[in-house]
């Protein structure tokens, strides 16, 4: 990226606001996102979407197979508040879609094995691949990444590991050493959870079914109330397949330590969802990263040499039975600090942070047991785009599907998905969900309905290349969802919503229009209708 000069217009600074918004989104989507259905289905990925049909069983060796499939459909009336979404063509021109519609499909065959040896330890391994495609107009970003019916088949998991039982201090522990391509997440994935993305030729940009990091690998220690990881990994970046939209190739190492309290019958040492409460300390160091000018100047040009520390917590950390807190009150949060004294691309250093705080309450004595929470999310930013210290937060490997919360850390299904950056922004989010006592197809199925509100605001308009006097408000959005779970292997959902543009959303929408194309009237409203399904065989 070229350094900016004061004489440039705000739309030309940093590669233009359009390019910056686009690049920020491209590099940050984990669905990179959610109501997202994947957030709803994440426990299935972690618990049930493993190879589980026995193919071979001989003595102490077991080989199993399985298949996941998923699909989604989208319709976005008045896309980007009337600015539309543009499909790039091979000749360099664009096709404009005022009302975007597209679909996504993916399939994931899996094969796993386990050998329970006679020497007291177990050997395990897994290999999987993902095939994915996008149909129709492609995603509804200002410049669509996935138009033209892209499709790809890529390697996902390819790992081998050893599990060693331990009995220290009269307790039961486990040491696990796993090498190769593998899924790795810390807590709910706010900092580390997603090692591969699905843009460009890979297709399935929104569903984003790829997660695996490449090795060397991870060493895990699991005990009754403490667990820890030591990791050395790298993300699976491929800008040939992702058509220049992927995140920087990043090699990193570090550790995390978690104290947790189990839910009744749970195993929180290995399953995040089984922790009634937890506190986690994490540190990582980026030992090598692509810092070329290909990547966005403000947001991601300075990973190489970065040090990152995080303190996260969740569940009911401080139970007070007299107030019902031990049963009904939840409190989740994470604070991440990024520092780099050897920054690149014109910066002398990096000092950035990101965080969220989320109190919630379950009204367990009311019909339908409504669950209400408020979440404040803040991704740090710079007061202007000319400083020598990089203050724009880098979301690193953000994934937010480990807990069921519509929207995750993405600020809504309309503006947050397709228009707003995840840097220099604060998000006020209010959610209410309820489970009505109705069963549609079987006595154990479950329907969850919800309403979800988002208020998005820039921290510093000047940090995004906008004039300093620009108002901070981006947009408001309200979404409604209905999610159906037939059983642990089959789920589906529908959702719809409307967004109301603020002055910043209108500026973002205008800046996303390709050069040489006329600027249409930017309106007050944009909408979305979505549907999803997931099946595990």
Could you describe the 3D structure shown?
By secondary structure, the chain is mainly beta. It is built from 5 helices and 22 strands. It has helices spanning 17-28, 37-48, 325-328, 415-418, 503-511, and strands at 53-58, 61-76, 85-88, 94-97, 100-116, 122-136, 151-166, 173-181, 214-222, 226-234, 250-262, 275-289, 307-315, 329-340, 349-362, 371-379, 389-390, 425-434, 446-458, 473-487, 490-501, 525-536. Helix 1 crosses helix 5 (503-511). The longest helix has 12 residues, at 17-28. It starts with 16 loop residues before the first helix and ends with a strand. Residues 1-50 have low confidence and may be disordered. It comes from Acetobacter sicerae. This is Alginate export domain-containing protein.
Summary keywords:
disordered N terminus, globular, mainly beta, 537 residues, 8% helix, 5 helices, two-stranded antiparallel sheet, 18-stranded antiparallel β-barrel
